[in-house]
Amino acid sequence: xxxxxxxxxxxxxxxxxxxxxxxxxxxxxxxxxxxxxxxxxxxxxxxxxxxxxxxxxxxxxxxxxxxxxxxxxxxxxxxxxxxxxxxxxxxxxxxxxxxxxxxxxxxxxxxxxxxxxxxxxxxxxxxxxxxxxxxxxxxxxxxxxxxxxxxxxxxxxxxxxxxxxxxxxxxxxxxxxxxxxxxxxxxxxxxxxxxxxxxxxxxxxxxxxxxxxxxxxxxxxxxxxxxxxxxxxxxxxxxxxxxxxxxxxxxxxxxxxx
Length: 258
Description:
Number of strands: 7
Distance between the termini: 39 Å
CATH superfamily of the largest domain: NAD(P)-binding Rossmann-like Domain
CATH topology of the largest domain: Rossmann fold
Low-confidence stretches: none
CATH class of the largest domain: Alpha Beta
Largest sheet: 7 strands, parallel
Strand order of the largest sheet: 3-2-1-4-5-6-7
Number of helices: 8
């Protein structure tokens, strides 16, 4: 790298986000971790020591726009700005539409979509000023296609892809790219919860949910490695991807090829 850049990754104290954070740390990026887990400060300290980088943790809640703006402001004071923003935080709820709780709808749209708007808006002035920025939105195969019982999640992820395309156009004159990654199923705590929810909804065993529902649509009958998503994030953040923008990139085992 020509210079040490700074990356902010939401929802990065576990799961996909932690894999992304680890990959960036290994490449020498300064790191802002975010999440609700209590181990956040210790995790940042450990990664800073292990990879000889500067790392910080911010517990900003994705449903609190003021906290999101404050997180970006604090990062600017400590690191001089944010070069790469990875909007990864996400939540899920599975329910038929007639039973779907309205507060769950609001929360899923808030965490999975609206937080990306607030954070992108907050980092934009710095990226525009330096004529360089990378916005990477972790969408989903459900941003490209739908499944039953996931109305809020599918709506939010479709919206995130539309948002990505819009800011790609706005960022093009400023050296700012924006892309969405659309994974299939990754074995994380979020997916474990989905498996349990689907088992309850369909009255199936959890193993049958994995085989007959989750991976049924993926030509490659295996979960997507979180490390593969992290590697794609690194590429999108690099100079090699300077002309790749406005894309929704499936990494879904062939799910959306059908």
